[in-house]
């Protein structure tokens, strides 16, 4: 199933700073996000934007990207500048869980999930380009993304996968037997098996996506995995990725100095554990650009963006 339907916006909630790159919902339907000045915010009252309460629950001193809410209420935070962190929203205390992997400083920690046994998995998008130069990595197609695992009590993450094309969002399967990894630069979702005879192996899960997948979200275990598409497919970029590395490096240097404005076409997908696309929601000429995350809260879809200064609340499709 790949029939497109409209992504219907309902309301917009302005935040104190721009770039709510990831959004996650807590059991009470409140949304947590991180913005560019390092603050972690919690938004309550999605149904009434003028009365919505936006409160600061912490500050990491870096640039928060991917978030994961733990059963005890703490929040895992990927700091693009400093590694993997754990934040207590009650008192704002921040602990560093990992700053390096395989003897190398974590340059671009991107997204994170925690499984029931306490094991944490997270991605590094690039070992070449920092967050501010993300477009350079997509153009150069460096293939230096990683998937890492941090076992309970460990300080040193284990590298599980290398060579990923801008590794980004993560989500577990309903039964915990595999992880879904978004490879933004390859326009695909990859499956990494955690159990069974093929444990430790990776394979394509959903390929040739209509855009560039960013963060992933799974709420209830029996619910779908939501995929944020940061932008529609750019055919010239597909052609460039087939060029020689030297050509791609030159193109990346040019891209870093060129003005950038996100496409006005936005979209999100929902997929199941068989790799079937359940929903494909799109909106052309959208005023809310560069959707980098999506979650479900209070029966709505909530969108985050690295570009915008707020979050968008949209209609959720009927369950399939």
UniProtKB/TrEMBL annotation:
GO terms for cellular component: endomembrane system. Residues 116-196 form the Strictosidine synthase conserved region domain. InterPro entries: 6-blade_b-propeller_TolB-like (IPR011042), Strictosidine_synth_cons-reg (IPR018119). The keyword Phosphoprotein applies. Keywords: Glycoprotein, Phosphoprotein. One of its GO terms (molecular function) is hydrolase activity. Belongs to the strictosidine synthase family. This is Strictosidine synthase. It comes from Streptomyces aurantiogriseus.
């Amino acid at each position: 199933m790949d029939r497109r339907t409209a992504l219907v916006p309902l309301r917009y909630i302005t935040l104190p700073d721009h770039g709510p790159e990831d959004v996650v919902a807590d059991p009470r339907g409140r949304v947590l996000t991180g913005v560019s000045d390092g603050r972690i915010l919690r938004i309550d009252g999605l149904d009434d934007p003028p009365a919505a309460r936006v409160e600061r629950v912490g500050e990491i001193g870096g640039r928060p990207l991917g978030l994961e809410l733990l059963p005890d209420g703490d929040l895992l935070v990927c700091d693009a500048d400093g590694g993997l962190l754990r934040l207590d929203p009650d008192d704002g205390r921040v602990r560093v869980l990992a700053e390096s992997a395989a003897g190398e400083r974590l340059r671009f920690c991107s997204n994170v999930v925690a499984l029931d046994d306490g094991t944490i998995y997270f991605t590094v998008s690039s070992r070449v380009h920092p967050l501010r130069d993300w477009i350079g990595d997509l153009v150069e197609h460096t293939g230096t993304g990683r998937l890492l695992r941090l076992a309970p009590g460990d300080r040193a993450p284990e590298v599980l996968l290398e060579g990923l094309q801008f590794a980004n969002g993560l989500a577990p399967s309903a039964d915990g037997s595999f992880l879904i990894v978004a490879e933004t630069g390859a326009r695909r979702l990859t499956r990494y098996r955690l159990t069974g005879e093929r444990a430790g192996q990776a394979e394509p899960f959903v390929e040739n996506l209509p855009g560039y997948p960013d963060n992933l979200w799974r709420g209830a275990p029996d619910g779908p995995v939501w995929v944020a598409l940061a932008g529609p497919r750019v055919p010239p970029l597909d052609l460039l990725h087939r060029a020689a590395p030297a050509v791609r490096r030159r193109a990346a240097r040019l891209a870093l100095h060129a003005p950038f404005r996100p496409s006005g076409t936005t979209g999100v997908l929902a997929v199941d554990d068989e790799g079937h696309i359940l929903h494909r929601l799109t909106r052309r000429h959208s005023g809310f650009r560069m959707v980098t995350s999506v979650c479900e809260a209070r029966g709505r879809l909530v969108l985050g963006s690295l570009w915008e200064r707020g979050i968008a609340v949209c209609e959720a499709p009927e369950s399939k």
